[in-house]
Specification:
The complex is a heterodimer of chains A (330) and B (154). Chain A is 31% helix and 13% strand. Chain A has 330 residues and is α/β, with parallel strands linked by helices. Chain A has two domains: 1-199, NADH:ubiquinone oxidoreductase-like, 20kDa subunit (Rossmann fold); 204-299, no CATH class. In chain A, the strands form three sheets. Chain A has a five-stranded parallel sheet. A two-stranded antiparallel sheet of chain A has the order 4-8. With 154 residues, chain B is of the alpha/beta class. Chain B has a single domain (10-131), classed as Rossmann fold (3-Layer(aba) Sandwich). Helix content of chain B is 36%, strand content 15%. Chain B has helices at residues 19-28, 50-58, 79-96, 114-131; strands at 10-15, 37-42, 63-68, 104-108. The N and C termini of chain B lie far apart (46 Å). The chains are: A alpha/beta (330), B alpha/beta (154). At the A-B interface, helix 6, strand 8, helix 10, helix 11 and helix 12 of A face helix 2 and helix 3 of B.
């Protein structure tokens, strides 16, 4: 029996939604199992880090890595899996651009710990905080240390392909699995390194079925506050829809369902900074010339970072906010 | 360090038809202004992609200046209003990122306003100097060891 190529999937700082999206490919998962030897996938099978460490370099053909790099364990696994894998895919929004965990880059790491362990919703009367190392009678034990900011996978190691989405759509995952299987059988070629796979090259607007006219808006509306026209472009109705800057690939799911695009597929082809592109787009359609009136309209965007960088803060040009990296004033 | 005067690095965007001509006029009229501003000429302030501003801050600028034709004077009819709206929105985003609002400035200067241009630049350089260096990190390495986690045992 010829050995099947090896497959691994790992989660770093993520929610587990990417794994569920893989399982949502239904029977396609059987193709994966038929064509690959799954050697490491913590959510689906039992394997230890030392098993991976014992593998030969480059022996895993395909590794899907989801999650951002939040602590030194994530960083270690990213480096280890890079070393052991031929093809390393940054899988899902966290690994490609930071996603929701990346919004922690707005805060100092001390603030994050204190929110988790010592706020009114936490029952911690003695103010006990976790320690990264502790002396037990059996020896010293460790838990991972948080890094000052969350990094995307490609800010830590060399990445071969990027697969956006929070989570990536199951039909896109199935298509990518199909492609890799074809490649294994010599029936297809891999795209050039650095390619964004499992997504379109255009914007969500391009896939959106709503009618578009010239956009001129007098106010930004929150979605539950207005009776929306189900056939008209959401942005034209003042609903801050992130479609203009977001990569296609999801068949415009949210706008089709009546909700604004929030940008989980990340920046469209050629967009350097996702938020900057949206700032440009939103500011262009505001119908006002006086600073006071413009400001009044902009007040409708209650949380600009949440609007423009919900998924892409860690992967943006600025990467983090000042409180996350600025030294404390002595 | 404390004895040395901090010289801010400022990236200034000018439009081809008004503010760049104003800078030109300041030059030909031998008006002196602070040398901290690196001017970049765009065809119009409406060409200013917010990405340019983000990139300037990410790569070490302490302040960014946006200039254009006076309202109503835009060579491309009303693109300077677009620049104004982008500026106002961008400033909100940058403020939320922790960048002081004073590090991003917009003013209008016509081709005849060399003196105003020079004076505004001098003013902005002093404002940014007072704010101090931004020193945005290019690599987010740990600042020091993070002595955050300690146990207060019962």
């Amino acid at each position: 029996m010829t050995a099947k190529p090896k497959f691994a999937m790992y989660w770093a700082a993520s929610c587990g939604g990417c794994e569920i999206a893989v399982l949502n490919t239904h029977e396609k998962i059987l193709d994966l199992d038929a064509n690959f030897d799954v050697v490491f996938w913590p959510v689906a099978m039992d394997a230890k880090y030392k098993d991976v460490e014992a593998m030969e370099d480059g022996s895993i053909l395909l590794t899907l890595f989801n999650g951002g790099i939040r602590n030194d364990e994530n960083e270690h696994m990213a480096k280890l899996l890079r070393q052991k894998s031929k093809i390393l895919v940054a899988f899902g929004s966290c690994a490609t651009e930071g996603c929701i965990p990346g919004l922690a880059n707005l805060s100092d790491v001390r603030e994050i710990i204190s929110t988790a362990f010592n706020t009114i919703t936490t029952d911690n009367p003695n103010g006990i905080y976790p320690m990264t190392s502790y002396d037990m009678p059996e020896g010293e034990i460790h838990i991972p240390t948080l890094l000052p900011v969350l990094k995307t996978l490609d800010q830590v190691v060399d990445v071969d392909y990027f697969m956006p989405g929070c989570p990536p759509e199951s039909q896109q995952i199935a298509a990518v699995i199909d492609l890799v299987i074809q490649v294994v059988h010599g029936k297809a070629e891999l795209p050039p390194k650095g390619t964004v796979i499992g997504a379109g090259n255009s914007t969500v607007c391009d896939e959106c079925k709503r009618t578009r006219n010239v956009k001129v808006i007098k106010s930004f509306e929150r979605i539950w506050n207005i009776a929306q026209d189900p056939a008209l472009c959401l942005l034209e109705q003042g609903i801050p829809c992130n479609g203009p800057a977001t990569r296609s690939g999801c068949n415009a799911r949210c706008p089709t369902a009546g909700a604004q695009c929030i940008g989980c597929y990340g920046p469209a082809e050629g967009v350097v900074d996702y938020g900057a592109r949206l700032i440009s787009a939103f500011a262009s359609v505001i119908d006002a010339k006086e600073p006071e009136e413009i400001d009044r309209i902009l007040d409708g965007l209650v949380d600009p970072i949440g609007q423009f960088y919900r998924f892409s803060l860690a992967g943006s040009l600025l990467k983090a906010a000042v409180p996350a990296w600025k030294k404390e004033k002595a | 360090m404390s004895n040395e005067k901090f010289e801010p690095v400022i990236i200034g965007f000018t439009c081809n038809w008004c503010s760049y001509r104003a800078a030109d006029m300041a030059g030909t009229a031998r008006m002196k202004y602070a040398p901290n501003v690196r001017l970049i000429r765009l065809m119009c302030s409406g060409r200013l992609d917010p990405t340019f501003v983000m990139k300037a801050f990410a790569n070490g600028a302490d302040g960014v200046l946006i200039t254009g034709c006076h309202p109503g004077d835009c060579h491309y009819v009303e693109q300077n209003y677009k620049a104004l709206r982008r500026f106002l929105l961008l400033r909100r985003v940058l403020t939320q990122m922790g960048i002081e609002a004073g590090r991003l400035k917009l003013f209008w200067a016509s081709a005849a306003e060399g003196a105003i241009f020079a004076a505004e630049i001098n003013k902005f350089v002093e404002e940014v100097r007072a704010l101090g260096p931004l020193t945005w990190p290019t690599e987010f390495q740990p600042i020091a060891s993070i002595p955050i986690m300690q146990e207060v045992t019962a």
